[in-house]
Write a sequence for this structure.
């Protein structure tokens, strides 16, 4: 490197990261990516060493979900790259902006089945917005910049950049001119706004369904204002919990398979559904041909591929959701007379005001009691990252985040093992926030190696472990839909989770009775140290309500013993 | 359904093929010509009207991202 202006590929990667506002990456080193790790020494880019590459991808996702910034994960070629894949798919399903940087064998070796060679570009082709293998150091800077722009939106998602070792080592004096492309904000068609307003004016029982698009576009305040203006009953998908104004009586709770009864029944009975940045997931609609059959549908989304994908849209509002809602609000503010649906909102609310639950035997700890106690005793504004399963649904039903960036969950993919690494990512993104991972015993055992990451960086992540010694959601379905033939769901030989946490230097305790919850939560939140609260729960408690597979959302099952 | 598209990254043809399979449609013909480092592609697809409509929407999105990645 005789020319002092020459830079290696690895140095270009770090320069672009910093210029894109990235000073933190999650990763795990290996052979092919070593030039990048060498350049990290002394760099302003901070590297968080996780204990499995999957955790790097989930942590990058948790970072992005909780902050709105692009999360970056790094892995080597072959197994390092393939271990990222689940986290990449998770980001793709939930529209989370991450950039994955993977090492690759030297370009002359590509295609020879070289050691640790995997065709990660082909493997991830269907689950990234775009991926590219950079073959020349001169292409690197432009490729990386385009990768970040594409990851950010308009609909965010994962982009993978594959980096052969020789490209990382090669030097260049080239500076790729990178024009600052303006960020284009898609605004809705005014004619479509008028059509939506016309439907609102004749509606009698409208319900708004807000989805993850509100979090992505920063539309929370506009959404709240929209609901206020119309006194509109509203519900949320799991990715949009926290969009409703805290305490708003018109919020009917989460919608869908384990949603609140009022939310599901109100949507079923609505004559107008206003779908805002949501994609009519099957867990939301239930049997789709019986979903809101009497309703006209206004569908607002930045991605036109969502219109008519599952549910026909009578009015499609394509554009950035904040812009769309702001346009609707502006029109409504000057509208006389303005429709108002306060009476209908009260009726909808009364369709179901309590969550049904199983009665658990005396002397046992109920998981729902644990979550209820958490809701009562946790610090206001805490960020919750859940894993996947029963605890996820109990948390989604009960926790009341004040902002959608405060509730992180693998919603579309439903990836177990998400909770702990996502909490790590969130804690780095928001270092002063209280961050709580609510996990089950199954998912925790897919990720507890990350206790080492928590300990190394002294992250004040709190872990609430709901241990029912079962793969509870699968067990529940086996009980209800497979004639109680329990197959591979028994985890009664679980390890001692308290000892495991302590082995990593993390304080932990077990609680097995409701009377001890208050003191245990007080200790959990007493300081800014990581801590695990292991809750030994009754193993046969189910999540209610439950819309059975193939049923309409009006056909929820409720607890027999409620 | 026949679409005439221009791609910067010819690998996206493979993605279109995969999407076609995923949406339960069928590939009838693909014709690609390179011109000025762009790949002019005619692709003929068959399937139910609903599946083709959803596939078409995905192709539009794919073309947008292809353009963005190679600006």
């Amino acid at each position: 490197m005789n020319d002092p202006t020459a830079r290696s590929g690895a140095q270009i990667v770090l320069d672009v990261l910093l210029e894109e506002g990235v000073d933190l990456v999650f990763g795990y080193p290996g052979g092919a990516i070593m030039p990048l790790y060498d350049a990290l020494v002394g760099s302003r880019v901070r590297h968080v060493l996780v204990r499995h590459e999957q955790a790097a991808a989930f942590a990058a996702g948790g970072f992005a979900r909780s902050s709105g910034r692009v999360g970056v994960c790094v892995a080597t070629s072959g197994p390092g790259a393939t271990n990222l894949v689940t986290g990449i798919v998770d980001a793709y399903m939930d529209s989370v902006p991450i950039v994955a940087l993977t090492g690759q064998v030297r370009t002359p070796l590509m295609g020879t089945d070289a050691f640790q060679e995997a065709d990660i570009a082909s493997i991830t082709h269907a689950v990234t917005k775009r991926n590219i293998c950079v073959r020349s150091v001169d292409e690197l800077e432009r490729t990386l910049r385009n990768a970040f722009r594409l990851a950010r939106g308009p609909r965010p998602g994962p982009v993978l950049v594959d980096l052969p070792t020789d490209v990382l080592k090669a030097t260049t004096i080239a500076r790729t001119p990178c024009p600052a492309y303006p960020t284009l904000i898609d605004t809705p068609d005014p004619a479509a706004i008028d059509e939506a307003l016309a439907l609102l004016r004749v509606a009698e029982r409208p319900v708004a369904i807000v989805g993850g698009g509100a979090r992505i576009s920063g539309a929370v305040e506009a959404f709240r204002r929209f609901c206020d203006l119309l006194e509109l009953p509203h519900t949320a998908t799991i990715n949009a919990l926290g969009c409703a104004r805290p305490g708003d009586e018109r919020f009917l709770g989460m919608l869908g398979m384990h949603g609140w009864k009022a939310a599901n029944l109100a949507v079923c009975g609505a004559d107008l559904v206003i779908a805002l940045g949501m994609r009519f997931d099957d867990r939301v609609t239930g049997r789709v041909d019986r979903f809101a059959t009497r309703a006209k549908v206004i569908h607002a989304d930045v991605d036109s591929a969502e219109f008519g994908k599952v549910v026909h849209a009578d009015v499609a509002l394509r554009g950035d959701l904040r812009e769309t809602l702001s346009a609707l609000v502006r029109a409504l503010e000057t509208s006389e007379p303005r429709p108002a649906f306060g009476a209908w909102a009260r009726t909808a609310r009364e369709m179901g005001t309590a969550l049904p639950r199983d009665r658990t035997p005396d002397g046992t700890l109920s998981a729902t009691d644990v979550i209820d106690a958490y809701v009562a005793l946790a610090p206001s504004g805490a960020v919750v990252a859940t894993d996947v399963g029963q605890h996820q649904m109990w948390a989604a039903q009960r926790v009341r985040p004040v902002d959608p960036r405060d509730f992180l969950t693998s919603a579309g993919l439903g990836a177990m093992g998400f909770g702990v690494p996502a909490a790590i990512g969130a804690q780095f993104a928001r270092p002063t926030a209280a961050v709580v991972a609510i996990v089950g015993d199954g998912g925790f055992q897919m990720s507890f190696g990350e206790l080492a990451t928590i300990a190394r960086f002294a992250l004040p992540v709190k872990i609430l472990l709901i241990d029912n010694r079962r793969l509870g959601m699968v067990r529940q379905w086996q009980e209800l839909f497979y004639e109680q033939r329990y197959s591979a769901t028994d985890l009664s030989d679980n390890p001692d989770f308290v000892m495991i946490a302590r082995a990593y230097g993390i304080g932990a305790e077990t609680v097995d009775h409701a009377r001890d919850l208050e003191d245990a939560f007080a200790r959990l939140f007493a300081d800014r140290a990581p801590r695990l609260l292991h809750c030994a729960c009754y193993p046969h408690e189910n999540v209610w309500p439950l819309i059975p597979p193939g049923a309409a959302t009006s056909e929820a099952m409720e607890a027999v013993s409620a | 359904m026949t679409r005439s598209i221009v791609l910067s990254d010819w690998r996206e043809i493979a993605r279109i093929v995969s999407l076609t399979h995923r949406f339960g449609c069928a590939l009838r013909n693909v014709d690609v010509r390179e011109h000025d480092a762009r790949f002019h592609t005619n692709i003929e697809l068959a399937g139910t009207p609903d599946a083709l409509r959803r596939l078409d929407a995905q192709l539009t999105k794919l073309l947008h991202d292809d353009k963005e990645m190679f600006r």
Notes: The longest strand of chain B covers residues 26-35. Strands of chain B lie at 2-7, 26-35, 38-46.
